[in-house]
Amino acid sequence: MELIRTLQCLIAVVSxxxxxxxxxxxxxxxxxxxxxxxxPVLSRAENIAYLYAINTTGIDTEVVEFSKEGGLVSxxxxxxxxxxxxxxxxxxxSVGLPNRYRGTRYGTYTAQFIPEDGPVVTRYGFIKPKxxxxxxxxxxxxxxxxAVSGGTGLASSxxxxxxxxxxPGCRSIQWCKGKKRNVNTGPRLQLTSTDDAGVYTIRRGKRxxxxxxxxxxxxxxxxxMDSYRMGDSCTSRISNFRCANGGVxxxxxxxxxxxxxxxGSDCSEEVNLPxxxxxxxxxxxxxxxCGELPGGNPKCRxxxxxxxxxxxxxxxxxxxxxxxxxxxxxxxxxxxCLQRCPDSQRxxxxxxxxxxxxxxxxxxxx
Length: 366
Prior knowledge:
Elements: E1 3-9, E2 34-38, E3 41-42, E4 48-54, E5 62-68, E6 77-84, E7 87-96, E8 107-115, E9 121-129, E10 141-144, E11 161-163, E12 174-177, E13 180-181, E14 188-190, E15 198-203, E16 213-220, E17 227-230, E18 233-236, E19 248-249, E20 256-257, E21 262-263, E22 269-270, E23 280-283, E24 287-289, E25 303-306, E26 313-315, E27 319-320, E28 326-327, E29 332-333, E30 339-340
Parallel strand pairs: 3-9, 10-16
Antiparallel strand pairs: 1-5, 2-4, 2-25, 4-7, 5-8, 6-7, 8-9, 11-14, 12-13, 12-15, 15-16, 17-18, 19-20, 21-22, 23-24, 25-26, 27-28, 29-30
């Protein structure tokens, strides 16, 4: 694996979405880091792709290393720091269009935060080609939960599968899991066990090396959805506990990992500037908005947020689709547009849900 090293980043001490950097596990869970992939779907002629590695834990000094399976053409890669004024939030990787082997830009990217003190934190993101043959319908990761503590069988769910759209022009596709080849035939794989966790590469015959591939990561929790790990066993959550607004229960803590723009131990609190209602990625004494990222979009349109396990990778609130650039249809809102508006508010705010309507229109910077 070819390694692309960024310059060293002296990260400012910030919090993410309102959480304190001294968060207490089980009450206000540690947000750790987030890798944001801009334009997760690229055409073969598109000029540039950005990946952002944003620090949110308050680690004083660290190095960020980007890597990708298969490497990249060195002259097409640039790295730099993400500054807003004098405040430093992280690093970015921009990948230009190589003259040959344009398919080398597609696949799984990894960003490792290597602090001076403390464990290395690894995050991942995906970029796939724009194609109707290998189309995952906007799915980049799939999280599954065991049915019982200590078991490997999965809890029943209509989402316990991964797959791609089939095309008559694609006579054969190959499934690989890590280095294992031909792990499945056909466009769909049914998930039955936590042992199915891993990164699956689905490619078009001999053209996989030229970029005709997509990847999906299956993430398996260690405890059932209604419990969390305490030591070596799973402990039941309180009966009315749930994660709001598209949040995902943490594996190993009695708390939630919240989507961008939401916070609180159950993700029930909105995060925005009190007056402007900007879409803010980090809030404390400093703020970072989507539009302040290199090549950024102020509405967070076209961003895939990869926040690690068990959250995985999802679009920002209010968007859905392969490229996270399609507004939620009427009656739906939130992360990947998976939340439903109540019957009394069929036209609820697509970014913040039914409560968002009570606070006036959302301001979006030009």
